[in-house]
Design a protein that fits this description.
Helices cover 26% and strands 25% of the residues. By secondary structure, the protein is of the alpha+beta class. The strands form 2 sheets. The protein has a 3-stranded antiparallel sheet with strand order 1-6-3, with no helix packed on it. Helix 1 packs across helix 2 and helix 2 packs antiparallel against helix 3. The chain starts with a helix and ends in a 6-residue tail after the last helix.
Amino acid sequence: TTARQMCEIYTAVGLINRDIVCTLNNSLGGIYLPYGPVVDITSVKDYDGNTVTDFTLKGVAFKQLTEPKYSFLEVEYNAGYATLPQQLKTALLCQVAYLYEHRGDENEGMMSPITKSILKPYRRV
């Protein structure tokens, strides 16, 4: 779990399928939803908690919220991989091995250089 969370934070990609609730500032429009790939949007609410039905998304796996241009939006959605691509699986296993080999070290909790190089093409931040 720790290795997966570290990989997710490093890439801003959801490695497992789960429900996410995020608060976004979309006042300029075009903000990306964190932790894709996005499977399904459950709800979009404004500052007062009213459901917004006239929202516009752009993109295939990693969705961009283009409308409405509100400074406060709460978005509930389902994201992550149902089946993890092999490269991401390899990176996750490398990170597990790295954490095991370096348990108790003063640099505990660091990302493996090999994991970083595998994840670099997937990094969204």
